[in-house]
Design a protein that fits this description.
With 221 residues, the protein is mainly beta. The protein is built from 3 helices and 12 strands. It has one domain: Beta Barrel (YmcC-like fold). Strands 5-4-3-2-1-12-11-10-9-8-7-6 form a 12-stranded antiparallel β-sheet. The protein is globular and about 45 Å long. This is Group 4 capsule polysaccharide lipoprotein gfcB, YjbF.
């Protein structure tokens, strides 16, 4: 992004440090020159901690999705559904959008998935059909920092994935393992457990953003 030239005096003031006197003088000079003054940026709240603390108060009558991210756990309720696409909201502003069992967008986390676009069908639509064979899938993912600063946004990150399924020691349960090659991310691994009789994914562990642990999801019956 092209920036307007800034007088050398302002650069020197900015270099003085982040103490109140230097920053206050810089704001005064910028105001005197008719330039926009810098805004104070408040730190992002730990929305997942709020969600964990207030999850006991969610509507018990609504379908619920259990979430886990690192040491935090929370309950999100269904707020919107269109076909296989569902949107879940937890207290504190944490929102997770799913397409079937796959997370396709998030809000309220340190890293956000802002969009997911599939290149062809998703093999997770029929996880049991992956028994005895593998399948390839490709999708494009857009990311952003929590503050949605344009400098933190990345668009069209390609996930080139291979999925395989196998029966587990637990009777009637199929485990689908997904391994993806992602530029700048290295290898990404996702796991999905499905009921063999119905093909429904009951719980999953999946990548939800750069620098975050895999998110654990337990889907409602």
């Amino acid at each position: 992004m092209r920036r307007a030239a800034i007088p050398c005096l302002l650069l020197l003031l900015a270099a003085c440090g982040s103490d109140g006197g230097a920053s206050g003088m810089a704001r005064a000079v910028m105001g005197g020159l008719g330039l926009p003054q810098p805004r104070e940026t408040a730190p992002e709240p730990d929305r997942l901690a709020i969600a964990e603390a207030e999850s006991a108060e969610v509507d018990a009558a609504a379908p619920q999705l259990r979430l886990g991210l690192g040491p935090r756990t929370a309950t999100a309720v269904l707020i919107q559904q269109q076909g296989n696409r569902r949107m879940w909201r937890a207290p504190g502003g944490v929102v997770v959008a799913t397409d079937g069992p796959r997370v396709v967008a998030t809000s309220g986390l340190p890293t956000l998935i802002t969009a997911t676009r599939f290149d062809g069908p998703d093999p997770l639509d029929n996880p049991v059909e992956l028994l005895g064979r593998s399948a390839e899938a490709r999708r494009l993912v857009d990311l952003s920092g929590a503050g949605r600063n344009p400098a933190s946004m990345r668009f069209g990150i390609a996930f080139d994935c291979r999925l395989r399924a196998a029966r587990t020691e637990e009777e009637g349960v199929v485990l689908v393992e997904e391994r993806c090659r992602v530029p700048g991310q290295g290898a990404v691994a996702n796991s999905f457990w499905a009921d063999e009789a119905s093909g429904r994914v009951t719980h999953a562990e999946q990548w939800v953003g750069t620098g975050l642990p895999r998110m654990v999801l337990v889907f409602p019956n």
